[in-house]
Amino acid sequence: MARLVARALRLGRSALIQVGAVCGYQGRYRTSFVASALMWHGPVIIVAQEAVQQLLLRVEIPRLQQWLPANKSIRTGDAWPGGEFEGLLLTSPEAWLRGQLAGGDRFPQGIPTIIDGVDDLEDWVRDQLTQDIQPHDWDQLMLAYPNQAEAIREARIQLTHELFQHPANPYECYLISQPEIEILSRLYLALESVQALPEPWKQFCQQFQENLSPSSPSSPSSPSSPPVPSSPPALFWATIAHRQGLFSLHYAPMELGEILSPIWQRQPVVLIGSAIEPETEAPLFRQRLGLDDLTCLKFSSESQAEAIQLYVPYKLPLPNTPEFQAAFIHKVRTLVCLSATAPGLTVVLVGDVPLKSQVAAILASEFGSRVQVEKTCLDENGILISGWEFWREHQRVLPAPHLLIIATLPLPSLENPLVAARVARYKRSHQDWFRLYLLPAALNELQRAIAPVRESQGIVALLDSRVVNRSYGAQILAALSPLARINYLDPSLFSNTNEENSA
After folding, report:
1. C-alpha R_g of the chain
2. Least confident among 61-75, 221-235, 423-437
3. Which of 149, 262, 384, 405 could form a disulfide with 142 if both were Cys (CB 3.0 to 4.6 A apart)?
């Protein structure tokens, strides 16, 4: 890998490298690209999260400096040091993307850039491009423009009323609907005479108006009617804090490719991820992020040392049926009881929030303080009940589990209005939204989630029978390889010796 990164630096040709889920979890691949960056004769930027930067500064770089004939200056910061700096700059994804999207000179063009952890690149970009109107922004708007205070206050009251009419969902977010669009449009018409809106309002207003059709189809003959949106490639949504009676407004572009494409032309980039896509060329990832001509590489391991034992029951009810919840809880209790004598951590991954709470309550009534919900301080043989996001963020600081129980495939939920909006866009384009969006997202999440279990050669119980009852189940099993299927449950399966695990 070090040679491949060095080749990308030498030729000035961008590359996308998938190191594999296990290697990505362990982080050992970082020695390779740091070595190449240190030995490269010119300046290099490494884009990595803060925790990774600290690891590089404290462990990887000092160790490599002892071995390599390199005497390169090392800096950290949110912008290029300037001058004739020819060293290595470590910066965060937030700072680098902020500088690139702003189009300024925070990072000069032409400097080879290595971006680590690009499995999360889409989320990083969306976070940077999301514009918000928070509750306190309304107060600041009224203070800045007292002559319009009544119109602003009335719009806020109307929006509160409309938004709190939405039926509750676990995500506490809702796409902006037609009545809410009309309220915002009237507010912006009232503020047309204002010379300089506060920055959050200016940005939100600009995006809101750019994504409106020139006239309202419902009343084309009325010039005073506020415009209404067509079907733009943008997301406008609100999040609600029910207890406080407050809401926030948000905007983010739906398509990122056109926005990011010019950025990749400014400098050669080496993008490094763990398990972005099953295909080496990662066509879906590249299309979504506007990545055109680059070298694609994928390291995969079929080593039996990384094999998991995979238990997938055949007769469990499907997740969308009323019988699933009781059957799932019964299966979890069985698995936990069978593994009770084996040392090590047990993790139960449940994406459904109400089901997660119910499982935690039932297991806590039987196993007491061993059971914790999304905590990192656990007993040696603790039982962690977790959602997907918590597990992804904290799995590196927790011991590798000997048993990982997965309730359902981590398919993005259509109950999430933001997911539903993206799916609707695929449908309007007559594209296969499941295989182009939901399934790749689930495969990436699933591979990263089970990576620690490979290290412990543990057992993964995937209690979603769609794996065996749906045509896409073969793709899921292929993505989870290497594995050994087990079709029965027995206490001997949970032996802590590697020999028995291999058997």
Report:
1. 26
2. 221-235
3. 149
Q: Please report, as a single letter, which amino acid is at residue 400.
A: A
Rounded to 10 degrees, what is the CA torsion of 130, 134, 139, 145?
Answer: 10
Residues 191 and 69 in one domain: no
pLDDT the model gives residue 212: 58
Asked if 447 and 410 sit in the same domain, the reply is yes
What is the spatial distance between Cα 107 and Cα 82, in angstroms, rounded to a whole number?
9
69 within domain boundaries:
yes
How many angstroms separate the CA atoms of 386 and 400, rounded? 14
Alpha carbon distance 126, 253 (integer Å): 8
Q: Which residue has the tokens 């690149």?
A: 121
Q: Give the residue with greater pLDDT, 182 vs 232.
A: 182
d(Cα 399, Cα 381) in Å, to the nearest integer? 10
Give the pLDDT score at 302.
Answer: 59
Q: Count the alpha carbons within 13 Å of 329 in the hemisphere toward its beta carbon.
A: 17
Instruction: Note whether 101 and 148 are same-domain residues.
Output: no
Interacting residues of 89 by C-beta distance below 8 A, sequence separation 6+:
43, 44, 45, 46, 75, 76, 77, 80, 81
Residue 479: closest CA among 433, 436, 445, 435: 445
Residues 394 and 333 in one domain: yes
Q: How far apart are CA 170 and CA 456, in angstroms?
A: 34
CA 49: distance to chain centroid?
Answer: 14
Q: What percent of the chain has pLDDT over 70?
A: 93
Length reported for the chain: 503
Question: Which domain-ending residue is among 298, 325, 354?
Answer: 298
The closest alpha carbon to 78, from 100, 60, 95, belongs to: 95
Structure confidence at residue 342 (pLDDT): 84
Residue 462 within a domain: yes
Residue closest to 462 by CA, chosen among 348, 346, 325 = 348
Q: Tell me the average pLDDT across 340-357.
A: 91
Write out pLDDT tens, residues 193-203: 777 888 899 88
- Taking CA atoms, 231 is separated from 81, 151, 213, 228, in Å, by 43, 28, 9, 10
Q: How confident is the model over 206-230, as pLDDT tens digits?
A: 888 877 543 333 333 344 444 433 4
- Look at residue 21 and tell me if it is in a domain: yes
Please report the pLDDT score of residue 301 as a whole number: 65
Residue 222 within any structural domain of the chain:
no
Same domain for 365 and 481, yes or no, is: yes
Q: Does residue 246 sit in the same domain as residue 288?
A: no
Cβ atoms < 10 Å from Cβ of 113:
24
Any idea what the CATH number is for the domain that residue 402 is in? Answer: 3.40.50.300
- The C-alpha atoms of residue 346 and residue 349 are separated, in whole angstroms, by 10
The pLDDT, as a whole number, for residue 489 is: 84
Instruction: Name the pTM for this structure.
Output: 0.88
Q: How far apart are CA 441 and CA 288, in angstroms?
A: 12
